[in-house]
Amino acid sequence: MKKQILVAGGTGYIGSHTAVELQNNGFEVIIADNLSNSKIEVLDGIESITGIRPIFEKVDLSVIEETEAFFKKYPNLEAIIHFAANKAVGESVAKPLMYYRNNLNSLMNMLEAMKEHNIPNLVFSSSCTVYGQPDKLPVTESTPRKEAESPYGNTKSISEDIIRDTVKAHPNLNGIALRYFNPIGAHPSAKIGELPLGVPNNLIPFITQTVAGIRQELSVFGDDYNTPDGSCIRDYINVVDLAKAHVVAIERLLMNKQNSNYEYFNVGTGEGVSVLEIIEGFERSTGEKVPHKIVARRPGDVEQIYADTSFANKSLGWKSESTLDDTLLSAWKWQENLKKEEVK
Ligand code: WQD
Q1: Ligand 1 pocket by C-beta < 6 Å: which residues?
Q2: E strands of 185-283, at which residues?
Q3: Mean pLDDT, residues 37-56 taken together
């Protein structure tokens, strides 16, 4: 009997790539998603890659009645990977209550269900945004968390505290938070990838949509930062490498290899890359030009952040493997495939 894993928010960008890697590692994947920021067709993409269609339930996990009905239907879950959250930084500034209600209620409903149904393990989708603008780089897991730059980021920080306090009160429960840096790229098959609804906030989908002619020109938000080329620096992590980190975390929990019942890890590449270097890398790896202009800084952007990944490499036994060029090319291949699908 395959071990059953709930991927909450599994038709989303990171969730769908994680579903593929879980299936590749012999797990049975059950996806619960409210489809508020993803499409049901993602299941076709997952199935076309692995040959296995995940079980899917349309559920709003922020609604306790829907959540309880779901867990009653699936009594044999070994673990939950919790992605289900709103994640648009700008939108969270405009609608903080929606973000706090949805992101925190969904997480608390998961934790209640774990207690209620004896599901011992949780992997949580956290973010480097909990560090704000770090004083020292690279960022390690002992870098102090700071006031997040947005309500979205704050929900991640508060969520980590909720998990920490819950597993402290219930030692039979175990949690691992993965602090993502900047997830980018798509599965090499180009069957799944990032599907931003509306105008993309994030850099890579804006680039691919600009090169595809959907957007006119990329605006680079500032080149007057205190960095080598003046543009902001981030740690861009390949989404498949990131998905694999979730499988490693799940296996760590199932084999009881944790040092404590609450752990958190920086999941990045350890390399800082600037916006202008991303544009150069994209043009180099795809042969396509990225029309762009320099505009004013975007409020809330941190100047630079990138990870020290030695703890995840050593203690979690995970390391990112993809090159930046291959990752940027995968994002472009996915965009090209999207265009072909639309034409069908
Ligand atoms: C990256 C860099 C921009 C768009 C946020 C969240 C993080 C995660 C990813 C959800 C910055 C610059 C961007 C554009 C630009 N959230 N940029 N022109 O802000 O680092 O991280 O999204 O998954 O938790 O904090 O990512 O891709 O928006 O920006 O110049 O049109 O690209 O200024 O320097 P960010 P991003």
Answers
A1: 87, 89, 127, 129, 182, 201-203, 206, 218-221, 232, 234, 275, 298, 301
A2: 218-221, 233-234, 236-238, 262-267, 273-274
A3: 97
